[in-house]
Amino acid sequence: MAQRFVSERNLKFLLYEVFDAECLVRYPYFSDHSRDTFDMVLGTAMKLGEEILYPAFQEMDRKPPEYADGAVRVHPSVKAYMRASGEGGWINAMHPYDAGGQQLPYMVFSACGFIFCAANYSLSVYPVLTAGAAHLIETFGSEELKRAFVKNMHAGKWQGTMALTEPDAGSSLADITTTAEPADGYYRIRGQKIFISAGAHDGVENVVHLMLARIKGAPAGVKGISLFVVPQRRINDDGMLVFNDVTCAGIYHKLGYRGAPITQLAMGDNDDCRGFLVGEANRGLAYMFQMMNEARIDVGLSAAAIASAAYYAALEYAKERPQGRKATEKDPTKPQAPIIEHADVKRMLLFQRSVIEGAFSLILQLARYTDMCRVTDGAERERCELLVDLLTPIAKSYPAEMGIHAVSQGMQCLGGYGYCDEFPLEQYYRDARIHPIHEGTTGIQGMDLLGRKVVMKNGKAMALYFDEVRSTIQSASGDDALSACADELEAALKTLEDVTAHLAGIAMKGEIELFLADATLYLELFGIIAIAWQWLAQARVARKALQGNPSESDSNFYNGKLAAFRFFFAYELPRIAGLARRLRNSDGLTVAMKTEYFED
Amino acid sequence: MAQRFVSERNLKFLLYEVFDAECLVRYPYFSDHSRDTFDMVLGTAMKLGEEILYPAFQEMDRKPPEYADGAVRVHPSVKAYMRASGEGGWINAMHPYDAGGQQLPYMVFSACGFIFCAANYSLSVYPVLTAGAAHLIETFGSEELKRAFVKNMHAGKWQGTMALTEPDAGSSLADITTTAEPADGYYRIRGQKIFISAGAHDGVENVVHLMLARIKGAPAGVKGISLFVVPQRRINDDGMLVFNDVTCAGIYHKLGYRGAPITQLAMGDNDDCRGFLVGEANRGLAYMFQMMNEARIDVGLSAAAIASAAYYAALEYAKERPQGRKATEKDPTKPQAPIIEHADVKRMLLFQRSVIEGAFSLILQLARYTDMCRVTDGAERERCELLVDLLTPIAKSYPAEMGIHAVSQGMQCLGGYGYCDEFPLEQYYRDARIHPIHEGTTGIQGMDLLGRKVVMKNGKAMALYFDEVRSTIQSASGDDALSACADELEAALKTLEDVTAHLAGIAMKGEIELFLADATLYLELFGIIAIAWQWLAQARVARKALQGNPSESDSNFYNGKLAAFRFFFAYELPRIAGLARRLRNSDGLTVAMKTEYFED
Question: N or C: which end of chain A has fewer CB within 10 A?
Fold first, then answer.
């Protein structure tokens, strides 16, 4: 049996009790679904997690992809899982029936994604990348492109990728230099890409790159970037797959996340690489942002999921490992206590839980907004879209950054064993560290939040967000057990308003560098408050449930929820005081720091 | 040439300008030394670091120790470095001439240790462990034991270890079960030890374990623990080294720190393991604490040193890597800027520097107290001893915990490359993670600080510590550029006093579990303030130096110091607000948390 990596009880609590996923089935778009179909989908996901994903978790790390002569050999589970994902309809599950999908709510799909990532993050990414790439073609591509590529991608036969980064353009997409020269019905592509996840491997027949490049003569910077489909192998006139002059030049050896090959690609070495324009020329970055935003939320989900797996490994150890005695027990002949009885260990476990369940709740909150976008229009739809836009950098970065600390505390629960590879914590610790880096570093997310999202549409998204949080505060403030925390959240919101106004004042004076200098801290402050909001919402549900005479096991679950909620407000929310203090002090310390002062 | 891993300029700044190491030579004990001999020692350490340690840094990680049939094969550098350490007098450098040492100040030796650990942490531990073990024999052992073991240990021919941990007694030494049965001039040892660093390897002729065991019939708990010398091979009547029935049963495969074998040992499988009692029976734990306290400070030093190496790798990258443009530069045809010009990257670099140089300053502060213990007596000596005792858990845990964050921020500066093994950051990230675990976890350090050190002798050490910090505050408050920070440090001290009094009140009521429940947070709060103290002391020196028309390069150095100082006060010290808020709220949240609430 697989070690436990996720709590189905918690997933269902969030889906049904907090976010009322069932309410969606009242809308025609989701009307074929029901709680039963959702449960069935979750059950299937658990089965996949336990039978295909988790069993390969450790081995894919110990035997990472191998590169030789342009080919990348991956673990056999990749082929099996891509096939299972295709056959099970997972790659296209959220899309409309007429695009071959199942119109599954994003909320339910996110819960499944959480299971997959917790079971084996490296393996989980292959179909997810494919889904994102296929979705780009579906949304912006011509009918011909759709016919040529999407079906095999949805079937799990062809891998999809997101090919952005170049040797001299990582975080700075304005500087990509891959070129596209118009030819007869296609573009001739030349250039290099690096850090392309699953950019070549033998678990599929073909790899389809959704690639950014510049059409010759296009404007400099981001306004001259176009999006192309660049397959590793193209279909020739006889309907055969032939080499398309996309070569894998190597793979990276990484700290973790080792089951997925991160590749370097060279296009057009033989001047025979064909790419196919997606949508209009020079609009590539806007198109790609659709995939990037999905990918960013998915990073947050993955980070929380890895931390979940680490938490359950730590919890199991803490329950079974006897060590030491309570501070009040001085008799050394008494048996040792399981370490879960030590307050400091409980603190570490509650910390993990408060991060993981708070973060995943925020992910589901965004999924709920996304689902509502499909079934509403006009102002309500715009509201949901704006909230997703605003909260995407938080949903990416809070789990990414705090997930590392959660995993680290999980490792700490195991002491020396946590550092050794006979337990899985050390692998989770390595795997988790990718998340603040890929799909836009935490620094980039901070600038996106403060420099773009907070100020967009004159702060409309922010205003909508405050309304959302205040609505939760109001609904909780009638409960005596929650009202103190509701007040604290209101005070935190005021702090956020205050800090935002202070920073906006700097922006108004045109001091843009100073305005953005501590954007990473602003992101952290914003994130802590967003998670406090999610905990208050969960606590309200748990309180109500406890009033309804729950079973003993339900009662334990809800009491655990309330403990994690109180923990977050007692230990985590107070951290905003230090952050706010710094953010209010715009002394320009880092802006003014001269490069030569780093010399000595 | 080795990549840079340490700043000699900073080491000398701290040694000579902040801590006035030269003043020691006025005392007879250190009177053979001078600034010249100190500089020569430092130069030799740099040479060792660059020529022996750093060149093996990566390879020892990639080719970790191999275990087969009871033997452990280590990298050939181990033998070379142990020999060099013995021949160079490093293993015994700090000890008196009559014990074969060089009477080198601990301050100077610490600076050398920092160089060694930064160059190659795994390799650095072999002689350090040997020194600690030999020192235990010298301090508490009989003349016969000294004659039999110490010389070969000081020569680097025999490895020393600290053999405490057992399968069922990690953090709980009260529960060790290894037994010692009196025999003819020795004790017959039976038992198992785990996680013993360098417990067996082929880089030396013999391994000498300083081992805790219970003499048959001894009282239960820590009062029945005795200390033994248990060599892997003993000298027989013919003066030959013969097997002493200590078997290495295996080694651990670890996240990092891979160059040093962490072993499992079995003693007395053939009923022929001889151990030799050190000092008196049942006083073993008190003796061992000498070595543990040294080892704990050494962990802090190592953690800061690894972070130093990571910092210089990140700094070098940041200076050379062009990526993006300033927020104010909208023209994409302009060349990209080196990332060190981005405020967020400067923030990450200053963070690292503020942690590393603040932490190592505290280590040297303790080294200075230790040196003063050798040349003073009476009240002054007691004062220095108490300050070392009080601050040891801080000197261990602050660098251990914050060093991880510093290394992680270094990795973040490199983006995707930081995650790949073509740069050294990923190895530093793995290596650094051991420090909050070994030589007493952070949780143990917190309980040691709050439950033992703060309250010892009616709070005498605390009072002495406050005097020390306030003396620094007073000397800085006359400088207009420092007085605001001096005031902030005074306010922080008041917060610490306040929190301590609150917790002491709980202890007085006998609620010991509640008193200690957040000891880890208390440790963190205490640590941040201690590092702020060290930064204020450094800033005062830098300010004075800048007033004396320094050279351009000195001016850059001192201005960099002031920037890191201001950074610490602006970004790190404010974190105490959130910690204090939690510590003042003794709601017993974790104490009350029931184990069954973790079920779901």
Answer: N
